[in-house]
Amino acid sequence: MKYTEDHEWLRIEGDLVVVGITEHASEALGDVVFVELPEVETMVAAGDEVVVIESVKAASDISAPVEGEIVAVNEALADNPGLVNEDPLGEAWFFKLKVDDLSVLDGFMDEDAYKEMIG
Q1: Rounded Cα–Cα distance for residues 94 and 113 (Å)
Q2: Of 28, 60, 66, 90, which has the fewest Cβ atoms less than 10 A away?
Q3: Element holding 29 (H helix, E strand)
Q4: What's the pLDDT score for residue 58?
């Protein structure tokens, strides 16, 4: 897995990049009560805000870490936004991106660098 400075995790599945948030981010948000997901087949640029998360503490946005096409979203989060708190590194992924070149992920942190960043 790779990690962003915005506390997102990126997992490669074949030619897709699966995007979610880290346990650290999930804990900081508190109890998640609503998740707004993007539309499938949406083209996004790196930095585009694509997901809105609302918790009892605050609202937060998830940005696309890289350019690509959203090819799947996790519909389970619409019915059960609490999955973000229960299983942030597994079942609570947000969307899957098809990217032209997976080597763009080389610039993101590995787990050790992320742990060092969050202290």
Answers
A1: 23
A2: 90
A3: helix 23-29
A4: 87
